[in-house]
Amino acid sequence: MRIQEQHLNDLNKSELSRHKNQYDFLSQDLTNQGVSVAEVINKLSNFQVAIPSWALGAGGTRFGRFSFAGEPATLEQKIEDVGIIHNLTQTAGAVSLHIPWDVPQDYKAVKELATEHKIKFDAVNSNTFQDQKEVKESYKYGSLSNTNSSVRDQAIAHNKEVIEIGKKLGANKLTVWLADGSSFPGQNNFQTALTHTQNSLISIYEDMPAHWKLFIEYKPYEPNFYSTVIQDWGTSFMLANGCGERAYTLVDLGHHLPNTNIEQIVSVLMLKGKLGGFHFNDSKYGDDDITVGSIKPYALFLIFNELVYGMKNNTNNPELSWMIDASHNIKDPLEDLIQSLEAIQEAYAKALIIDQISLKTAQDENDVVTCQEILQAAYRTDVRPLIREARLQSGGVLNPIQAYRKLSVRKNLITERGMRTIATEL
Ligand SMILES: [Mn+2]
User: Fold this and answer.
1) In the prediction, which pLDDT does 242 show?
2) Which of 27, 57, 313, 339 has the highest count of CB atoms within 10 angstroms of its CB?
3) Span from the CA of 324 to the centroid of ligand 1 (angstroms)
4) Quick one: pLDDT at residue 329?
5) Ligand 1 center to 96 CA (angstroms)
6) 176 C-alpha vs ligand 1 centroid, how far in Å?
7) CA triplet 202, 208, 213: central angle to 5 degrees?
């Protein structure tokens, strides 16, 4: 399904005067407070978040999966879905592919389709957390950390193959997330497992082209319930340092034990120039992978405060790679992603209007009350008119969810693809 520009203009027309009033009021108020509204709008417009190919169909749980009608059955259809989201929001200008779920058949055609939708190829993701068809060795007891060298070699070779696929698409980052660990005490030798993992990662790192980055993701538990080899940011940081300059830690919001101070982790990693990628989602209990901002929007804002500070002050830290890593099985996946993008933009906008100069003064004077007042003044501001204005200026719609429904996108996708399609590998 292709959305016509004229349709977007028509949708915006009916909302325009209300938006104008709200935007003028907020923009005047922020300008009086010393905020450069044009700069905020510009930053919001430039902020692009990658959509992972596995979030476009309904996700499942370990108990089952409920398909959503009209799901994309091919890589081409997945790119088209990202194109729809990007068209409406103008903030989803990239797709992150999962190999081997999304190996292109025709690279040229896939690249052309992506370009047509103004979609770039973000980090490619390897998969050694499940056994693929027709492979010799099993990852049941781990991949890069396995006690058996032929299993490790197979997992390394898979990652190198993912790099080759990424190269052909014009990607320049590899994300490695390992399920490796143990489910029972005594099952693993921690030191051996970590040493194997480091050596395997070095072998993958050395295979990457000189302009590529390696992102090492961590997670405390699940699928293993006693130990995980790369369990926390410290382990990831250590492994990244062991690989070299272009290896970085990747923070996934859901990959922390409850109440972890994620904003502090972000801040420390950026100080050291080692935060490479960021995965957005939200959770109540564990790695729940639910819609960004649906549970803890204030925590997301505090994280963005550190990200904004780091992007301004830690010039040694590279430009970050943003991705939504959420997937569940109740909502329309595309509406869910639009909600996530909105929540990300909102937290980012609120962080951008924090009065950093006054905050620094209050911190220096140990005026704790004022510090809190400054943060919460920004958080309590309804910044949605700024996000709408950024979208409008970039050619998107004022209200993406409403537009999605008015254009009957899902109905059209069902007509095109059928009721019973299932996204590849879900
Ligand atoms: Mn992730």
Assistant:
1) 98
2) 57
3) 8
4) 81
5) 11
6) 9
7) 85
